[in-house]
Amino acid sequence: MYETTVDTTEYQAITTVIHRYIEGAALGSGEVMKPSFHKDSAIFGYAGADLFAGPIQQLFDWCDDNGPSPELTSHIANIDVTGTAATVRVELDNLAGGRFTDMFTLLKLEGEWKIMNKVFHLHG
Predict the structure, then answer these.
(1) Whether the predicted model's global pTM rises above the 0.70 cut
(2) Which long-range contacts (CB under 8 A, 24 or more apart) does 57-60 make?
(3) Strand, coil or helix: 65
(4) H-helix or E-strand spanning residue 64
(5) Sorting pLDDT into bands at 50, 70 and 90, what band is 7?
(6) Which of 6, 25, 52, 106 pairs with 64 at a CA distance of 20 to 30 A?
(7) Is residue 1 in some structural domain?
(8) Which residue range(s) make up the domain with 22?
(9) With contact defined as beta carbons under 8 Å apart, do 53 and 43 qualify?
(10) In this structure, how many other beta carbons lie within 10 angstroms of the beta carbon of residue 22?
(11) Is residue 2 part of a domain?
């Protein structure tokens, strides 16, 4: 048998990590969102017909290149935590003019939650 309850402080810590990512997106600043991610994180998704995939630095560069998104709205749609692993789904509207669904995997490393991977869907 395994324990299914999660301390609410874990959800709060994960939410803080995700909000830092969202703040960086709104400001158009890869530097602001960077602390949310593990240094070896990767990103995957389609930008139109083209696969956008590789090291997370590509996201930071994309964010810097596209600049601020002052009309950005966001919603954390789901957080699922099991021990030191978590998944989060975030809905973003008006990010560089687009609507995105982001899905993150997180891992708690040395007491701190970090985004390990980002998979996204750009809505048409």
Answers:
(1) yes
(2) 57/30, 59/30, 59/33, 59/118, 60/30, 60/31, 60/33, 60/34
(3) helix
(4) helix 57-66
(5) confident
(6) 106
(7) no
(8) 8-123
(9) yes
(10) 21
(11) no
